[in-house]
């Protein structure tokens, strides 16, 4: 397998309350967060590439510089004149977080417009990771362009990984959301859903129902996350395995719990192919992440790779 993990999606500018009306700028987005954690935990002979689109403005320059500073490779990122990255603001009120988004004209919405570029990027990767958020921001024809490249990769037995990350506010049509998430899963051979989202939007009665539904779509391998309750692994030809979470006394901020789990899991699974050991390690990584503020936690606060 090519030692190259590719994640595809949107990274946004994040504005967070600092003091009073002062804001602090950061960069985050589910697919980039996963790339960040995969980079932290993969050996140096693996590369982690991020595919998105940004603008040609200063904030796009800064975002690329930030990505490069984390070790994530940016050479596949297209720059689009006249566009800018999407932006979101985190509001903190009485300890509760809420979000405002400005992303309807973000450059990333055009990330799948160049089919040749997408094909070359996917061809050189051993593992390709995308999410329901990646699909939600794309126009319908761009979803089809992306999924046809991923179906080709799946047919070539590459590891195509999908986190449904169901976010109804990103979709203007509920049925199209469910149909597109299912199409994303069909193009994948490892799906990493959060049970709560699946139960809410697909009506799954229990984790076994989530596994059965994705199996029915031709997904061989599943890692079903269930917050503090642990994860259930169902891998082709293997018994179903439950991996408990690591106990956390005080949860500070659950942002990126699922993304860090995914990145850490894939880093371990890529190297040793042992799903249970990878999930145990990922549970430790996610437990560290939720004990700190923000999506991207410094390496010294994470378990050793
Ligand atoms: P998502 O962010 O995708 O909704 P989950 O909430 O299922 O993901 O959490 C992802 C992972 O983070 C879990 O599988 C678990 O390892 C870890 N995690 C989440 N919440 C807790 C918690 N309260 N205590 C310990 N670990 C947790």
What does this 3D model show about the protein?
This protein is α/β, with parallel strands linked by helices and 305 residues long. It has one domain (4-301): 3-Layer(aba) Sandwich (UDP-N-acetylmuramoyl-L-alanine:D-glutamate ligase), CATH 3.40.1190. It has 10 helices and 14 strands. It has helices at residues 30-41, 58-69, 115-124, 132-136, 140-155, 174-186, 195-202, 207-216, 257-272, 275-289; strands at 4-8, 12-17, 23-28, 47-51, 53-54, 78-79, 87-93, 96-102, 127-131, 159-163, 190-191, 221-225, 231-234, 241-243. It has an 8-stranded mixed sheet with strand order 4-1-9-10-11-12-13-14, with helices on both faces. The two termini are 21 Å apart. It binds adenosine-5'-diphosphate (ADP). Adenosine-5'-diphosphate binds next to helix 9 and helix 10.
CATH topology: UDP-N-acetylmuramoyl-L-alanine:D-glutamate ligase
Radius of gyration: 18 Å
- Helical content band: 25-40%
Gross morphology is: globular
| Strand-pairing-aware structural class | alpha/beta
Q: Helical element count?
A: 10
Give the strand order, joined by hyphens, for the main sheet.
4-1-9-10-11-12-13-14
Count of DSSP strands? 14
As for the number of domains, it is 1
Strand content: 15-25%
CATH architecture name: 3-Layer(aba) Sandwich
Order of helices and strands: EEEHEEHEEEHEHHEHEHHEEEHH
What summary fits the major beta sheet?
Answer: 8 strands, mixed
CATH superfamily: Ribokinase
Mean pLDDT across the residues is: 96
| N-to-C span | 21 Å
Uncertain residue ranges: none
Bound molecules: adenosine-5'-diphosphate
